[in-house]
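Case study: Methyltransferase family protein.
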Amino acid sequence: MGAPLRRRFRRPPRTRPRCAVLHELAGDGPALELGIGSGRIALPLAEHGIPVSGIDASTDMIAILQQQRGALPVDARIADMAGFRPPAPFPFPFPFPFPFPFPLVYVAASTFSLLGSAERQLTCLKAVAGTLSGGGLFVIEAALPHTVTGNGQQVIVRHVADGVGHAHGLRGL
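Here is what the predicted structure looks like once written out:
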């Protein structure tokens, strides 16, 4: 993998808040990342003691991750988010002491929307359900569309908690 591509996928500072939230949710881990890519989120989690397994469709991205991971407890496999079957694609036993199922599964950076269709998203959700431990969490970071209210103001949803979107900004159109 060339240096320009590696530089392109360095971990930007804006990943810190995401990692902090995921670290809190993961407890002692482990976590499963869908669309692990270059490890932009997985590597900082692993640096804080959370073992991470991940899947990605890109061999190039996983090659970058493998170069950067060192001895961190991060494992990645080539797989389609809509086509993986729990516990596959991971060999058992894991190369790291990962218990199964996972207490945390997450997908970052609107990657879930790249599945392209509701059918593929549903297939992915079913696979995720098979990987979660009892009480486990599935976190999807996704862009929510801007909503226009009846009075012509645009509501910008900044976060969703307990199933409710919380508007942090209103703008007139």
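For the exam, be able to explain this: The first strand starts at residue 31 and ends at 34.
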